[in-house]
C-alpha cells in the first residue's frame, strides 16, 4: 500500500480524516502499513559462504575465519566472492575500513551477475587522507547499464568500528542499508520502462584495491605506499538468499520467502525519514538531480521520493 502517493493527492481536511483512518487501521491491521527492517543478520565464518578470488596470500584469517583481513600493498590488492549465486535475499557484511591514510584505496562490497548484460548492486568505499572523510559511492546496473551513481559521506568514522553494510533485494525494491539506516532505494519501475534485476542470479563480491587514478578527490590524492600495507577488516558474512545456479532463471521459492512479504515491499515512515535525513545532510552527488547528465529526472528517481 503506497500511502504516501495517496496523501499527496488529498486536500488537508480529507487528509486529516484519511490519517485518522490510517492510524485506526494500523491498530487493527498492523501489517497493512507497517514495514519492517530486514531480519537481523547472523554472523558466520567466512568459509561458510565465501572463497578468495585472487591474491590468496593477501587474505588473512582470524578466529577460524570469523574475521578476515584483506591486505593491499604495492604488489596487489585482493578479493573474495560468494560460493553461491542468488536471486533475491538479504546480504550483509560487517566491515572496518582501512584506517589512517587510506587515500587512493577502494574497498568494495557488491552483487553482480556474471554475463555481458549484467546486473550489479554496488557499495564502494573511497579512502582518504588521515582524518578526512570516506565517501560511500553506490550504483545499480541493470542489463549492463549503470550510470546511476550516488555519493554520500557517513555520519561516523567507518575506520573506528565495524559497521554493517547490507542489501535487501526482492521483486519490489533494492535497499542499501548502512547499519539500520536505508541510504538508498531503487524501486522496481518496470512499468515505467526501467529494467529491474529479476532473472540473473548474482554472486556477492568484496575487494580492496588501489584506485588512485580516480578515488580520492577525483584522483588528485595518490596512494602513499610508505603507509602500506592497507588493511580492511571483515566480519559477519551473512547471506540469506534464494540460491540459484548461474543459468537458472527463477528461484523455486520466489514469492514465498520472508523478503517477498508485504512489510519488505516498501520502506515504512521511519525508514523514509531516515533516508531523507541521509539525503539532505550527507549527499555529495546524486545522478537523479544531475541535470547536466539527465535533463529529465530518470523515472526510477521519481518513484523513490519520500512521503
Ligand atoms: C577527502 O577529503 C576531502 C577534503 O576534506 C574531501 O573533499 C573529499 O570529498 C574526501 N573524500 C574523497 C574520497 O575524496
From TrEMBL:
Superkingdom of the source species: Eukaryota
Main location: secreted
A single Gene Ontology CC term: apoplast
Signal peptide bounds: 1-35
GO molecular function, one term: xyloglucan:xyloglucosyl transferase activity
Glycan attachment residues as annotated in the record: 128
Pfam families: Glyco_hydro_16, XET_C
Keyword field contains Iron: no
UniProt-listed Enzyme Commission number(s): 2.4.1.207
Keywords of the record: Apoplast, Cell wall, Cell wall biogenesis/degradation, Disulfide bond, Glycoprotein, Glycosidase, Hydrolase, Secreted, Signal, Transferase
Description of post-translational modifications: Contains at least one intrachain disulfide bond essential for its enzymatic activity.
Gene3D superfamilies (UniProt xref): 2.60.120.200
Entry annotation: catalytic residues: 120, 124
Enzyme class: transferase
InterPro entries in the record: Beta-glucanase-like, Beta-glucanase/XTH, ConA-like_dom_sf, GH16_AS, XET_C, XTH
GH16 domain sequence ranges: 32-234
Localisation: Secreted, Cell wall; Secreted, Extracellular space, Apoplast
Gene Ontology process terms (BP): cell wall biogenesis; cell wall organization; xyloglucan metabolic process
Recorded family membership: Belongs to the glycosyl hydrolase 16 family.
Biological role: Catalyzes xyloglucan endohydrolysis (XEH) and/or endotransglycosylation (XET). Cleaves and religates xyloglucan polymers, an essential constituent of the primary cell wall, and thereby participates in cell wall construction of growing tissues.
Protein name per its UniProtKB record: Xyloglucan endotransglucosylase/hydrolase
Phylogenetic classification of the source organism: Eukaryota, Viridiplantae, Streptophyta, Embryophyta, Tracheophyta
Amino acid at each position: 500500500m503506497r500511502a504516501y502517493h495517496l496523501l499527496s493527492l488529498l486536500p488537508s481536511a480529507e487528509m486529516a480524516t484519511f490519517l485518522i483512518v490510517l492510524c485506526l487501521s494500523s491498530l487493527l491491521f498492523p501489517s497493512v502499513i507497517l514495514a519492517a527492517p530486514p531480519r537481523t543478520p547472523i554472523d558466520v565464518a567466512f568459509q561458510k559462504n565465501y572463497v578468495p578470488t585472487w591474491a590468496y596470500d593477501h587474505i588473512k584469517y582470524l578466529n577460524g575465519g570469523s574475521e578476515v583481513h584483506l591486505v593491499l600493498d604495492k604488489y596487489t590488492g585482493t578479493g573474495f566472492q560468494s560460493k553461491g549465486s542468488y536471486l533475491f535475499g538479504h546480504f550483509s557484511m560487517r566491515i572496518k575500513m582501512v584506517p589512517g591514510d587510506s587515500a587512493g584505496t577502494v574497498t568494495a562490497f557488491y552483487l553482480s551477475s556474471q554475463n555481458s548484460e549484467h546486473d550489479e548492486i554496488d557499495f564502494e568505499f573511497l579512502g582518504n587522507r588521515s582524518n578526512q572523510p570516506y565517501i560511500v559511492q553506490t550504483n545499480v546496473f541493470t542489463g549492463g547499464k549503470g550510470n546511476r551513481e550516488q555519493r554520500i559521506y557517513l555520519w561516523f568514522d567507518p575506520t573506528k568500528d565495524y559497521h554493517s553494510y547490507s542489501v535487501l533485494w526482492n521483486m519490489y525494491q533494492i535497499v542499501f542499508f548502512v547499519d539500520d539506516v536505508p541510504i538508498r532505494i531503487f524501486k522496481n519501475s518496470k512499468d515505467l520502462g526501467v529494467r529491474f534485476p529479476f532473472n540473473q542470479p548474482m554472486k556477492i563480491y568484496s575487494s580492496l584495491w588501489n584506485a588512485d587514478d580516480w578515488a580520492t578527490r577525483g584522483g588528485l590524492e595518490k596512494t602513499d605506499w610508505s603507509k602500506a600495507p592497507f588493511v580492511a577488516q571483515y566480519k559477519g558474512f551473512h547471506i540469506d538468499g534464494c540460491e540459484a545456479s548461474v543459468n537458472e532463471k527463477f528461484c523455486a521459492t520466489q514469492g514465498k520467502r520472508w523478503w517477498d512479504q508485504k512489510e519488505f515491499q516498501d520502506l515504512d515512515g521511519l525508514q523514509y525519514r531516515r533516508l531523507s535525513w541521509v539525503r539532505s545532510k550527507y549527499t555529495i552527488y546524486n545522478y537523479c538531480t544531475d541535470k547536466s547528465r539527465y535533463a529529465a529526472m530518470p523515472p526510477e528517481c521519481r518513484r523513490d521520493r519520500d512521503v
